[in-house]
Amino acid sequence: MTNAAIIGGFFGDEAKSRITNYLAPNFKFIVRFNGSSNSGHTFYYHDKKIVRHLLPSADFSYNNYAFLSSNMVINPEELLQEVKDTEYMFPDVAKSIIVDPNAFVITAKHLEEDKKNIIEFGSTGKGVGCAYRDKINRCGIRINDLLKDNNEVIIALKNLGVRFETALSLYNDFEKFSILFEGAQSVLLDINFGTYPYVTSSECTLGGIFNSGFAAFMPSIVYGITKAYSTRVGKGPFPTEIFDESAEQLRKLGSEYGATTGRPRRVGWLDLPALDYAHKLGGFTDLIITKLDVLNGYKEIPVCIAYKKTITDQQDFFNAEPQFITLPGWNNSKDKVQIKPFINYIQNYMGCPIKYVSCGVNQGDILAW
Ligand code: IMP
Ligand code: MG
Question: Quick one: which ligand is closest to 12's CA?
């Protein structure tokens, strides 16, 4: 079976979930392999805006199974709420949701402790880093422990139909059917490869898949996702950031406000040296460019094509001096002739095929390239 992965090429919020949801009908299992409710995955489904935090962006009308892997950390109350919210649109959805009981739990103590990370790192305050810390420190609590204790939230999830089964117990199914892995956050927020210490606490790259019990089912297609411009929430270096009124304009046009915290996102231009870094460390086989429609009407589009010093280390992002060119803009991103110079430039620069471009929020707005 051909398995595929969706990986963020920047600082999160590349519209990954829209691509996951679009591709989901081709796969049996949609697997979330890292992070937690720190992510806000927003997409439109038949004109309705959907925001998911813990559940992968599966399209449940196609009978997909959503699997929450052992490499995640999970706040059970939030999961229960999200399952109930999802049932409004997909009755009985709980029966399509499988949680690996080896995942670790976010507790009330973690939520309290994470408050200081909101100030220090711009964290989302969801307790994620604190839960991973306790996992590594060998004092974490697993979903399995809550199952044994007949925890009432876990029982409520079970009563709705959610299954608690390890990746190992599903090995035969994973062998038979195809899997789409949905990454949360991105290479530049990855605990190993991101702009440390301004990173999230999980493995947002293929390592997160490997360490979720899927070593035997690694994806042969790895889609790296980037917007036609870039954004970042929280603190940390952002070489192509813009600040003047053009930033406010771009933020408004792209609705760049955090789906989890509502914070205005920092905005900037597309950064090809950073995308190249993400491509090489993320193992992208293909690229997908999203939100081209946001730039409709821009006559010229600045793009960073080099830093004064070549990046060889994540710390190089802290004092990067970006060098820009401008590429011709477009009035209508759905007109392939108009966007071709921009897309072709990126494709040639990256040496990686661009598979799809996304030019709006509806299903028909994703174009094969
Ligand atoms: P934490 O993951 O909540 O600890 O936050 C650490 C950093 O990652 C902060 O800068 C957050 O804004 C950022 N972050 C975490 N999750 C996401 C996401 O889904 N999209 C974008 N940024 C995120
Ligand atoms: Mg997001």
Answer: 1
**344 has which bridge partners?**
none
Please identify which residue in the block is written with the tokens 């994973």: 174
For residue 351, give the nearest of 279, 282, 271, 264 by alpha carbon: 279
pLDDT at 260: 87
Amino acid at 165: E
> What is the C-alpha separation between 342 and 353, in angstroms, rounded?
14
Q: Which atom of ligand 1 lies at the shortest distance from residue 233's CA?
A: 12
3-state class of 158 per DSSP? helix
d(CA 7, CA 182): 7
DSSP 8-state assignment for residue 56: -
233, 122 Cβ separation under 8 angstroms:
yes
What local confidence, expressed as pLDDT, does residue 78 receive? 98
The pLDDT assigned to 137 comes to 98
Record the pTM: 0.97
**How much is the pLDDT for 249?**
97
Tell whether ligand 1 has an atom less than 6 A from the beta carbon of residue 123.
yes
- Residues 6+ away with beta carbon under 8 Å from 364: none
Q: Please identify every stretch of the chain with a pLDDT value under 70, giving residue numbers as ranges.
A: none
